[in-house]
Structures are given as C-alpha cells and as structure tokens.
Amino acid sequence: MAGIIIGHFPCNWERFLDLIPPQYHGSLDKRFFEEGLGFQVSIAQQLDALKVIPYLDGRFIEAQDSDLSRFYQAGFKGLKVLYIPDEDSEFGRIGWRKFYRISKINYQRLINRMVEQAFSFGWPIIFHADLRRYGDIVKEILQTNPGCPFIVPHFGFSRKIMAEFLERFDHCYTDFSSLLSFMQNNPRDYIDFIVTYQDRVLFGSDAFLGQPDLTADYLKFVTSFIGEESILTKIMSENYLRIHG
Ligand SMILES: [Zn+2]
Prior knowledge:
With 245 residues, the protein is α/β, with parallel strands linked by helices. Helix content is 47%, strand content 13%. Strand 2 (46-47) and strand 3 form a beta hairpin.
C-alpha cells in the first residue's frame, strides 16, 4: 500500500490546518504534528502485515528546506505535490503563493527543484493539479521526464484533458479518488473512461484513508459496474506494481 505522509511540518498547528481542506480537520491526529509520528511511520515501512510505500507530502516544504535527500535517506519512496499556486475551490481561501508569500516564478522554481530531485531518486510523483488551469505545466514535466512514473490524481479534474495526457504519455497515470459522487451521477461515462484506460487508472492513489466506509463505497462502485476480473486486478494492483517496479 502506498501512503502519503507529511514529513515536514510548519511551525504551528494553525498554519498546518491552513493547507488541509476543512472537511479533514476533524480526523487529524495532533500527535502526528507534535511528535513527528509521520516521519517515524515512513522509516518503519511495515505496519503489522501491511507493507507501506511512503510518499513524501511536500506541501509544507519551502525553498530553504527543499533538498529532499534527508527524506530519501529516511526511506521515502515517492513524492506527492499539491500544485495549488492560487486560490482553489477545494482549498478555499488560500493559494500556496499567498501562504508562503512567494512570487510565481519562485514557486515554480521550488516545485521544479523538488520534481527533478524526486525523479533523480527514481521516485514516482503524485501531482495533484487541475489540468484545466495547469495543464501546460504538467505537460512540460511529462515531456522533460519520459519514463518517470507520474500520477495525476482525480482524473486531473477533466476527463477530456486527462485522456489526451494518457494517450500522449505512457508514463502518466491517474486515479478516481474524490470522484465518487460524480461517478455515481454518471456511471456510464466514468466506467467507460476507466475501462478505456485500464492500464493507467489506479484505485485511489491520492485518497484519505481515515474513512474505511468510504473506501468500501468506491470498491462497491467499481466492482458493481466492472464485471471483468482482469480489469479490476489492473486498477487495484497490477498498475501499482508496474509503477513501483
Ligand atoms: Zn489530491
């Protein structure tokens, strides 16, 4: 199982909450913030019988901390980027540039540096970005890094643009996390998409694991609409195994 772990925290809890969507605030454990438990989990990589592939959540990393070597040494195996330079409907009031008070060009430099270094470690990247707004930036990363597994979660917020990316870049993957209500309203088109791109779709790579019932609902949705076992095996496991060699 891949787990996204915030390995680097801001100086106080309030600032931490600023970059977490409000719907998750109730399920956060302050101990992870205060005792650095996220970092310890990443080093353990084994929770009972579960093997964890830890992805570093880079949302709180600023320019002066952006050398990721210490995370590589600690055992992280991937990078998660929340690409939200400006205000966003999901995150509400704040964009990253305002939060960190940095210019567009410096924000982009910071992201580029982390992306480059992650790829140099051989890490796959989960890159949360709205392709309708930031498609050009994502395209550039994919073009300059052929062969490096790159996951754009939530169907990139546009199935149409996501399809173009999947057709053009064979190292690009996607997932349908956070999309359950949209899928339930329009199962035919979503299932069509999943079946068409069955070699590139993942089951929830950018999902929140604190609600097992919700994960069960996703599972129920795909299993009730997709009868073919081979397709389910791909999206549930084979595609991940390809990404992680
Ligand atoms: Zn996301």
